[in-house]
TrEMBL record:
Record's protein name: Gas vesicle protein
Pfam families registered for this protein in UniProt: YtxH
Heme among keywords: no
Family matches, as InterPro entries: Desiccation-related_membrane, YtxH
Gene3D superfamilies given in the database record: Apolipoprotein (1.20.120.20)
Domain of life: Bacteria
Protein's UniProt keywords contain Transmembrane helix: yes
Keywords: Membrane, Transmembrane, Transmembrane helix
Chain ranges passing through the membrane: 6-26
Length: 108
């Protein structure tokens, strides 16, 4: 994401500088030149805003996917722990029954 942001920023900055230089060297009246510069700035602003919105959407999607993946992983972990807990309880009950049997033999 960082490379894409840097690339987009560099392209927009290059386009803005190129447009500004082209407008400044064009043989137009000052009012026309100012209008062109304003249009160029507005275009750059809109491009930057569109880029920001696209990047925000990508980040939102990644966050949503990460949240779903985390929820799934947590549910799997809880399910595995639940199964293991049942296995441990069964094992302990078996050992308790064995100990009770051994204790009964010793008390005779």
């Amino acid at each position: 994401m960082s490379n894409n942001s840097n690339t987009i920023a560099a392209i927009l900055a290059g386009a803005a500088v190129g447009a500004a230089i082209g407008i400044l060297f064009a043989p137009d009246k000052g009012s026309k030149t100012r209008a062109k510069i304003k249009e160029g700035i507005d275009d750059a602003k809109h491009n930057l805003q569109d880029s920001f919105e696209a990047s925000s959407e990508v980040l939102r999607e990644k966050f949503t996917n990460a949240t779903h993946n985390l929820d799934g992983t947590l549910n799997d972990l809880l399910s595995n722990v639940s199964h293991k807990t049942e296995e441990v309880i069964t094992f302990l009950e078996s050992k308790l029954a064995d100990l009770k049997a051994q204790n009964a033999k010793l008390q005779k």
